[in-house]
Amino acid sequence: PLADPTIDVKYIGNIPNASNYEISRLTPVHAKYSSVIKQFEDQWKHPTDTPVVVSVLQIRNSREVWEAYQSALRRVGGNEQRRWHGTSCENSCNFAKDLSTGGTRGQPCGNSACALCNIAGSGFQLSHAGTGTGGARMNLRYGPGLYFSSTSSKSNDYAMNSESQCRVSKFDRGVKRRRGVAPNSTVRRRCMLLCK
Questions:
Q1: Under 8 Å between Cβ of 88 and 113
Q2: What is the pLDDT of residues 8-20, one digit of tens each?
Q3: What is the model's pTM?
C-alpha cells in the first residue's frame, strides 16, 4: 500500500530522452477529488442523465512538458482555467480503465496511435489534432487546433472511442453508492481529461 492515503494507485511512466511522468488514481480524501466530480456534474449541459464519475486520475507531466506549459502560460498572461478534453484510446488499451491489475493492464499502452496514452506521456500535440474519433466525427469545427470546453458533456461527445464496459471495483464503491450504482455491477466508462 502507498503511504499517501489520498492516492490509491500510482504509475510512473518514462519517455525516451525525457524525465518521468506520474499517474495517480485519487481517493475521495484527496483535495482535488470532490472538486473534479463537482465540476463534471455541474457542467453537464446535455439533456441526458449525467454519467457517474468512476475514478479520478491525476497526471503529472514530465518536467519538460511542465516547463513548456509554464513558459506558454507566462507568454499569454496567466489566464489559467480548468477545461475538459474528450479523447480516444485504442481498443486494446486498458490505461485509465483498470489501474489495479498490474502487468501491462492499467498502464499507458505505448501505441503511437493511442491519443490518451500519448497525451498522458507527452502532453497535447497540435500535430495530432483531428486524428482521433472526435476529430473525424466532428470534423474539427474551427480548423486544426486543440479543443477544450468548460462543458463536460460537450467534451464527452469527443470521448466515444474510449468507451468500454468495466466492473465497479472495491475502490469505486463509495462513489457508486453515492450515485445509486450497485457494487459489482458493470458500467460504461469513458476517458476524459480535466486540464489546467
A1: no
A2: 878 787 766 667 8
A3: 0.77
